[in-house]
UniProtKB/TrEMBL annotation:
Residues 181-200 are annotated as: Disordered. Gene3D superfamilies: Ribonuclease H-like superfamily/Ribonuclease H (3.30.420.10). Residues 1-30 form the signal peptide. InterPro entries: RNaseH_domain, RNaseH_sf. The keyword Nucleotide-binding does not apply. It comes from the Eukaryota. Residues 247-307 form the RNase H type-1 domain. It comes from Dendrothele bispora (strain CBS 962.96). This is RNase H type-1 domain-containing protein. Keywords: Signal.
Length: 307
């Protein structure tokens, strides 16, 4: 429960969690001393580690909390995340960024981003780098030098007292470029082509299948427990395009799964797909025991998913 409340990263986060952030950032292994302390915001969202040794000065309650997360396989996991979540992630030492992001933190430009621009999140980096975007071979009014007097550079100088807006824009873009597609808000994401199932009109009393891959909410909603340590989540995007046919017709298909000796070691499961009597598309399927390197549980539920 402590860990769940600590990771409640939305607006209702408890006050003690902010103190825990500071304590976890102070008590780090010796090899993390080169990581600037102002970068260490959350060890579950970033690639730095906090001390977990009993001989460290880490408070006992925080040690228990961290070890509970390790015991139950706590980690970030999901097929896709909505863009607001991607933008809320910390940019410095982003947990899924390429390791070269660590080499981008020590320069004077990066120090300017943190001290003058107060740049903390992926979204803030994306906004700062926006004037560099070229659309249809046309760039914005920004010019690639520090003497540029475009509206964006002028505003940056006035609000942050930055002497080199262009360099800071470039560094912000370099930081985002270290992110894999799944965590890059500039990349096309599944949410761009997903439709809210509640907006689909119903006929009769059927249930509309929610096919969306995207995890919604805030940073609190991206964590999972009881994860498989032998499985490494991929950081590619899964954009499923559904082609709409103007001549579409409604087809009723019945699917089901069944299992012999369900719940036993010798269980055998299968699935069936039924269109109509004598229809060549009717099919019966045997549930395989393995899918690649993953063992499939022989059960009614798994067979129904196969169908």
């Amino acid at each position: 429960m402590w860990l769940k409340r600590y990771l409640a990263l939305g607006p209702g986060r408890p006050m003690w969690a902010l103190l825990a952030d500071a304590l976890l950032a102070i008590n780090v292994p010796a090899y993390e001393n080169n990581t600037p302390q102002d970068i260490r915001k959350n060890c579950y969202l970033q690639s730095w580690t906090t001390s977990t040794h009993t001989r460290s000065s880490q408070p006992t309650d925080l040690l228990r909390m961290i070890k509970a997360g390790q015991k139950y396989g706590l980690r970030i996991e999901g097929l896709a995340f909505e863009r607001t979540i991607l933008r809320d992630m910390p940019i410095w030492h982003h947990i899924f960024a390429d390791s070269r992001i660590r080499r981008l933190t020590g320069s004077n430009t990066s120090k300017c981003l943190r001290s003058k621009h107060n740049l903390q999140t992926v979204g803030e980096a994306e906004d700062l780098a926006a004037p560099l975007i070229i659309i249809n071979e046309r760039q914005s009014r920004h010019r690639p030098n520090n003497q540029c007097n475009c509206r964006d550079c002028t505003e940056i100088r006035e609000t942050t007292n930055c002497d080199h807006p262009h360099l800071c824009m470039v560094r912000a873009q370099e930081l985002i470029d270290t992110l894999p597609p799944k965590w890059d808000p500039r990349v096309e994401q599944p949410e761009d082509v997903e439709t809210d199932p509640t907006s689909i009109p119903k006929t009769r009393e059927e249930e509309i299948f929610d096919y969306r891959l995207t995890t919604t909410g805030d940073l609190s909603d991206i964590f999972r427990i009881f994860t498989d340590k032998s499985h490494t989540p991929v950081n590619d995007t899964y954009v499923r395009r559904i082609q709409t046919d103007s001549n579409e017709t409604l087809i009723n298909v019945a699917t089901d799964g069944s299992c012999i000796d369900n719940g036993k070691d010798n269980a055998l499961a299968g699935a069936g797909i039924y269109f109509a009597e004598g229809d060549p598309r009717n099919k019966s399927l045997r549930l395989p025991k393995m899918a690649g390197d993953t063992q499939l549980t022989q059960s009614n539920q798994t067979a129904e998913l196969l169908a």
